[in-house]
Design brief:
alpha+beta; globular; 293 residues; 2 domains; Protein Transport Mog1p, Chain A
Amino acid sequence: MKKIISLLFLVLLSSCNENLQNEKYEKKTVENKFSLLIPESLEQTNKLNSIASIQFENTNQDFYIMVLDESKDVFNKAVNKEIYNTTTDLDGYYKVIVNHFKEITSKDFKVYNIEKKKINHSNAIVFSMSGINDGYPAFYRYAVIESNKRYYQIMSWTNTSQEQKYTDRMNKIINSFKIEESSQSRLDHYKKVDDETRDIGYIHKPEKIQTEEIKMKTGKNNYQCTVTNSDLLDTDLQNIKMHSGKIAGIYYKFLIIINSPFNYNKIIVKIEHRNGKIDSFEYSEKEMRKIIK
């Protein structure tokens, strides 16, 4: 009986792998940025990350993928202003990504299968990561890719128990990635809010981040960052003011990059909780100097 069960298991496993090998893909394009192949079994979503360029999931398979992008000019300025302690190149960008995942992974974090390569003529670093994140044993197959004006991240993940099952699929998606930027400068087109809020999204994982400039008659305007439904902020209420200060600091550092000179009245952090409660914190120039010193 044990032999029959074992044979049946092998047949089912073989059938599953065969289905993955023969699955159909379709080309997805983000205009004037990139294209890549996505399995038809995945559905497009907007729930995984509020700042992703494109994102797909199949919850039945516990399989997810997204692409994020960032202006090289903004990243380089952040490095020069010591927001990131790294170098202004693809290796430096890779280190920022790995350090971020190391910080948010609670247990058993490791990086492996690191490969520097060309993907459709673009410089890339492809690598794997795994660890326990919020109680979930996650396996990531990741790529950072360099274009003339931007860095791209391809982030695919599943449960660690499915690493062998889905690694080939992840690699196929990554290797299909193609830069399709126009020769015109992308600096005229990228959304500044993506770069302002990227680190806030990484750390606090809210469902939504919104930034706005509030016009004042004094000539100095207020700048508000609204963070909605963050697991961290909803559960760590006793430290909500500390978290608000960190959000204000991140927001301020990006504001001074994209506004020159930067004159303001107040930085406002508005935190909307799932229970309907709203916390609001205002920071004057004097208070911001204490936060960022």
